[in-house]
Predict the 3D structure of the following.
Amino acid sequence: MNRKVLLIGLAVVVPMIAVLALSLGRDPYSVRSPLVGRPAIGFTLQEVGTGTPLALADLEGKPVVINFWATWCVPCYAEHEVLTRVARMTQSQVQFIGVVYDDDPRKILQFLSERGSAYPTVVDQGGKVAIAYGVYGVPETFFVDRRGTIVAKHEGALDEASLINYIGTILGDAR
């Protein structure tokens, strides 16, 4: 056997096996964001339908779930039911905020009318808040503890078990 070919093959295969081994057991949707461990970026956006301003700073001292979504996002449809149900279950402990990424307010209102809502939904026209949070695809969800620190980020649609686990993290308990 050609020793040179063997060494090149090992140089390619060994690092790939190491990366795969290190990734075993990790949640592929839980993302290491540079924002995790830092204060949540403040914003004031208008609630869809009413135009009432909602400022993240007004929620100081309460854990917050910030979900970036859009009406054209297929995974957001399934996720919305989970978010609404869990928001109702935890409304005395956690504040949910839906941040709709650069979407038509009429479509947002129709979406919420058809699927229900349990928390404020605000519109991020132009996507400035989404850009500040580093959102590059919806749905993406950030979990902020009562001190205002982002403790986790999840990319993709959340299932109920994962959402409840994240909420346990921002509440500081093992749910």
About this structure: The two ends are 56 Å apart (CA to CA). The first strand starts at residue 44 and ends at 47.
